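> forwarded from #structure-qc
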């Protein structure tokens, strides 16, 4: 879906009266991709539970569903990265643009120079640990895509921090472009290559249809996440979410904006299915590897949808009830902290 073009920066709208609940769109029923689990699921989820801080996150479950065919060493690295990515996301929520730049400096230097750069910061140690394991088997193209897209992630979260500090709500088109990077999905797509031992040529990965498939998967994961995380974020006054963007730009009430974003999510799934019909052939070996990669994107679409109701990150202990009823009781707004 191509959103219309609007002026690039818009200020915070007046706050309407707050409703008490929203009804989520039924995205699970619209997604027909098979939900699969990695055979090492029990081992990886047990190891994740040892990290008490992330007990309710269930990153191991997400990893198992998104990388169902990975061998254990690759699955463990993907799980470590996802847990680390959620840690980064939580850090960036509380940072200004200078803070995100400082973290970016440590992380990116640790990636570009994993054997020569050293930082005492915990985030630097974590980065070196997983990336030194990754380079043992990841193809050069996979490594390059991983680092480049992680660089984009930090550039975009820095902009997000600026927007948050100034109360700016971007227009929909600008938000979509920024959110494709703040989501952190793109490095996770590189890990599909790593987890399945793929070595796909750059010219194939850069093909417009392959890029479009990655974007459609990113959009579904990201936009549905905006719906699922809206309640927690509105309670904090965070405006980096598609729902307030749509409310402001389209002049919609909250439920209508949720429905609007839900329709966009369904269209992104439809777009993913449609684009696959137009893939060219690069020969048996590349076609086989590319099919595994695209299947990996589909695993992320279906896996993320189901995981969102199993994790306690968005709905606390009520995820399964919310999945069944699709009704979310809105949290009260917290007082602003200084």
């Amino acid at each position: 879906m191509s959103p219309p073009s609007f002026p690039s920066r818009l200020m915070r709208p007046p706050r309407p009266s707050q409703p008490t609940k929203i009804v989520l769109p039924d995205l699970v029923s619209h997604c027909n991709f098979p939900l699969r689990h990695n055979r090492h699921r029990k081992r990886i989820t047990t190891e994740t539970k040892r990290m008490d801080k992330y007990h309710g996150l269930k990153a191991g479950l997400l990893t198992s569903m998104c990388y169902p065919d990975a061998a254990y060493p690759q699955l463990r690295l993907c799980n470590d990265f996802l847990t680390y990515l959620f840690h980064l996301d939580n850090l960036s929520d509380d940072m200004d643009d200078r803070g995100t730049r400082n973290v970016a400096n440590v992380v990116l230097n640790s990636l570009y120079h994993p054997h020569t750069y050293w930082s005492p910061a915990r985030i630097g140690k974590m980065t070196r640990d997983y990336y030194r394991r990754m380079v043992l088997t990841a193809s050069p193209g996979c490594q390059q895509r991983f680092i480049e897209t992680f660089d984009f992630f930090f550039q975009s979260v820095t902009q997000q921090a600026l927007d948050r500090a100034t109360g700016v709500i971007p227009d929909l088109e600008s938000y979509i472009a920024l959110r494709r990077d703040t989501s952190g999905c793109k490095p996770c797509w590189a890990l599909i290559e790593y987890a399945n031992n793929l070595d796909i040529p750059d010219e194939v990965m850069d093909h417009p249809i392959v890029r479009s498939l990655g974007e459609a998967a990113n959009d579904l994961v990201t936009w549905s996440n905006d719906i699922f995380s809206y309640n927690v974020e509105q309670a904090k006054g965070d405006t980096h979410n598609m729902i307030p963007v749509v409310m402001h730009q389209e002049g919609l009430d909250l439920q209508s904006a949720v429905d609007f974003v839900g329709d966009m999510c369904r269209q992104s799934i439809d777009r993913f299915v449609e684009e696959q019909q137009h893939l060219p052939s690069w020969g048996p070996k590349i076609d086989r590897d590319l099919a595994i990669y695209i299947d990996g994107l589909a695993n992320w679409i279906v896996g993320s949808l189901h995981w969102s109701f199993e994790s306690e990150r968005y709905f606390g202990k009520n995820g399964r009830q919310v999945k069944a009823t699709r009704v979310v009781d809105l949290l009260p707004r917290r007082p602003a902290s200084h």
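QC bot note: The first helix runs from residue 41 to 49. The first strand starts at residue 9 and ends at 11.
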